[in-house]
Structures are given as structure tokens and as C-alpha cells.
Amino acid sequence: MTTMLDASTQAHLVARLESYRQETGAGVLAVTHDIDLLERWCRPDAVHHLPGSGDHG
After folding, report:
1. How would you class 2 by CB atoms within 10 Å of its CB: exposed for 0-12, middle for 13-18, buried for 19 or more?
2. Please, what is the average pLDDT of the chain?
């Protein structure tokens, strides 16, 4: 979703998705290599790391 976006556009897109999620109660499935983004955006228990994927937690 955000691979080729600059940081400002990525932040705007994530903010829009989060706003939509909060307003509607929708779920969001985010698949990414950007662990820092997931750790900022998701509950800690919602981030899943695969073995050998550069485990951060």
C-alpha cells in the first residue's frame, strides 16, 4: 500500500484509513515490511512477526 510513497503521503494515507476505521468500526489488515509503521499504528498484540523476518519483539 505504501511502498512507493514519500513519508508525507504515507502518513496522510494511514491517517485517512485510521479515521475511516474509527468512524465505521471496520477492520484493517496491513501486510508490510515496514515494522516501524505497524508498531506505531497497531496494538502490540496485533503485530505478527514471521520467524527469520528480522524479529523486532
Report:
1. middle
2. 78
